[in-house]
Design brief:
Elements lengths: L1 H8 L14 E7 L2 E8 L7 E7 L7 H12 L3 E5 L10 H9 L3 H16 L4 E11 L1 H12 L5 E5 L7 H4 L6 E6 L7 H13 L4 E6 L17 H19 L2
Parallel strand pairs: 3-4, 3-5, 5-6, 6-7, 7-8
Antiparallel strand pairs: 1-2, 2-4
Helix pairs in contact: 4-5
């Protein structure tokens, strides 16, 4: 059901074929598996706060790499995780197939292992590690907060939400959620219910709903749905939130 729901809301997330920002390919263990990712490191000696960067249902493509590089420019060690084991979709059909074929428990294990990998790096502040993701990755960013009690911040860009209070109690990380008011998969009511549940539990949460935006409004390759002004505001809010939670 989770994959079917995601397949409905993510069909407007489109790939971007821009040049990738330079980064270093790294590997880390997740159970018996080896996971690859791309590590982007700020200039300077550190130690730095860090981010687990989670891709859309297209896979670890150039747009996500670009976002990770931009986050490194802001002073974060950014690990762009490859949940698809090297596969990248070039069509919606393949993207849906890859997403449906991704075991949820494996993905969450990979993201927890990414946290451990970052925490093991000498140039990373171990108590200042957060997560960020878009579309499918936004949902997994929230899942990382549910699974990793030491996570220090979580950013959800129009990702799948949860409202089960028994699950949400597990979250310690402050959350920033950015959503489109015209999103037909993750509706404003869904967002408001999530926010109310978090506030009921006394959790720290910030939410912004952009009234005229739909799903994937931050991705410029979403030709019909891209909203540059809203995307710029979402980026500014993201940077401000991360600075307040990870650089304090």
């Amino acid at each position: 059901m989770r994959s079917l729901f995601l397949s409905l809301i993510l069909s407007v997330c489109l790939p971007l074929s821009a040049l990738a920002v330079d980064g270093k390919t790294v590997s880390y263990k997740s159970g018996d598996d080896t996971v690859n990712g791309i590590l982007y490191t700020p200039a300077g000696k550190g130690p730095f706060p860090a981010l687990i960067v989670v891709h859309e249902y297209w896979g670890l493509n150039d747009w996500v790499k670009q976002q990770a590089g931009k986050l490194a420019d802001q002073g974060y060690v950014a690990l762009a995780v490859d949940l698809y084991r090297g596969k990248v979709a070039d069509s919606p059909d393949l993207a849906h197939e890859l997403m449906r074929g991704l075991p949820e428990d494996r993905a969450i294990r990979d993201l927890r292992a990414a946290f451990d990998f970052l925490a093991s790096q000498a140039n990373v502040k171990k108590d200042r590690i957060g997560s960020i993701g878009w579309c499918m990755g936004g949902g997994y960013s929230l899942d990382t907060a549910l699974a990793e009690p030491q996570l220090a911040a979580t950013v959800i860009h129009y990702g799948r939400l949860a409202t089960d209070l028994s699950e949400l109690k597990k979250i310690n990380a402050p959350i920033l959620g950015l959503f489109g008011g015209q999103d037909r998969g993750i509706t404003p009511d869904d967002v408001k219910n999530f926010q109310q549940s978090m506030e009921q539990l006394g959790k720290r949460i910030e939410v912004k709903i952009y009234p005229d935006a739909g799903h994937a409004f931050e991705n410029p390759n979403n030709k019909q749905g891209y909203r540059p002004e809203d995307a710029a505001d979402a980026w500014r809010r993201t940077i401000d939130f991360l600075a307040a939670t990870l650089k304090k």
